[in-house]
Specification:
Blueprint lengths: L15 H5 L8 H9 L4 H10 L8 H4 L1 H7 L3 E3 L26 H10 L9 E3 L6 H8 L4 E4 L3 H12 L5 H10 L14 H4 L2 H15 L6 H21 L2 E3 L3 E3 L9 H23 L8 E4 L12 E6 L14 H6 L6 H10 L8 H9 L7 H17 L7 H21 L1 E12 L1 E3 L2 E3 L1 H11 L3 E11 L9 E9 L3
Parallel strand pairs: 1-11, 2-3, 2-7, 3-6, 7-8
Antiparallel strand pairs: 4-5, 8-12, 9-10, 11-12
Helix pairs in contact: 6-7, 8-12, 9-13, 11-12, 12-13, 17-18, 18-19
Bound molecules: S-adenosylmethionine.
Length: 486
Amino acid sequence: MDYSTTKLTPTATKHPANILSNQQLVFDKNIIEHDSELNTSKLDARKINILNSPKKGGSSTLDSLPYLKELNIEIIENAQPIQFTPNINEHIHRWAPYVQGFSALFVQTILDQYRKAYHNPVILDPFAGCGTVLVQAKLNGYKSIGTELNPLLQFIANTKLNSWDVSPSYLLKTYKEIHRDKTRPAPSFLKSNSQFRADVLRNLELINGGISSLEVNTEKQKKVKNLLEIAFSAILVDCSNLKRSPCLGYVKDKIVHESTPFVLFDQKVQEIADDLRLIHWQYKDFINTESKVICSNAMAYKHKNKFDLAITSPPYMNGLDYVMNYKIEMGWMEFVHSQKDLKQIKDDMVVCDNVSKGLIRKFYQSSSTYTNDWIEEIKTNIEKNIIRRGAYRRHDMPYIVHKYFDDLYKVMKNVASYLKFGGRFVLVVGDSLIADVYVPTDLLLAKIGLDLGLKIEKIEKARDRRSGQIRSYRLRESIITLIKDR
Ligand SMILES: C[S@@+](CC[C@H](N)C(=O)[O-])C[C@H]1O[C@@H](n2cnc3c(N)ncnc32)[C@H](O)[C@@H]1O
């Protein structure tokens, strides 16, 4: 059953345990064996499924109608530049490239929208990433806090937020004094020899060795070292044979010269020094505005304060792996020392679709999970379609989808409990099409908001997007605004 062709009727909520007793199980041994017989023709089966998809040329606009009817709301068109790309030219935001971030302009639009509603609002971003929301809040003089599970991103965000008092001339002086005769070897658990040309690798090891040997006896020296580290981490992928577009992958014919590390490192340090100059000139009053990101799980972090505005973008369901995509920087900056360390961080995050099978198995065995009638119906439909198709990338997809909403429920519940009366929770998210089943992520998050006692103020469509196998299906990216009015 698919929501685009059937009437949405609330079904009895099926507990995961009941679904597991069903004959046509996601982990059913027969299905797995059947699938392995198909292995040789898997690619063809995939192509055939794409060609035969009933969703070809479809759109989330149509498939959302029954859900919207049940919520009794309409989606407002409000085109917005949400993606990070323009930030590579924005002061401070440009210190580190991060493909999954918000555009600073979008965050500013939200802050402007509520300028009259809140006086000096306190801002929260539970999925802080590289700190776009918090940096923009600080540029407005607003206090802010964030949580982020990736320690590299937490480090980047905190350095962008808390180095504003460093003098640009002191940064440049320290940079010029860096030793060029000390090396620090590339992380041994990564395939650095294939990721970098040998001469480039040697020069990166020299820059890293120089930064590592800087003396750190004062807070000021520590901040400068952090700025040089952020500059170094920011150039690593550009110096490699890889590209993030948006997933990290090898590119043919990429031209990187022996001198590239020195050239790019110099450019980045000069950029940071220029931005510090601008901060001291234009944002002096906000240098000490409290802002920080805690390396912690947004599902459980206990805050000390309440917030006026939570602005965030959770990971998207069939989106990116926020750990593997940053493994090079995480390894070089010594936030992780093995593949096992990477996996451990990933397992705690909101689930993504290349999560380990063991974690999903543990999830469906657990008895205390959030669900609702929409989630259960979507799971059943995905399960049926996977069986109909005969082959699918992940047979445990229904449970990945379920875990995604269970994870987000926990985060939303935590955030809702720290919102002040009258506070707003703004979420940006994209919806998905999984095994020909439409998943209205935005509307589901709005529904979860209702379950948590929040009111849906509005849902706006920011842009059309395409993702997943059926490229002709039009998905959307939405801004959901929830308000705590009781
Ligand atoms: C879409 S990105 C947010 C980007 C951010 N808006 C920015 O502009 O930098 C989602 C972030 O959530 C983080 N994340 C995933 N699960 C988390 C969890 N359970 N707790 C805290 N952070 C988490 C990921 O590491 C990722 O950086």
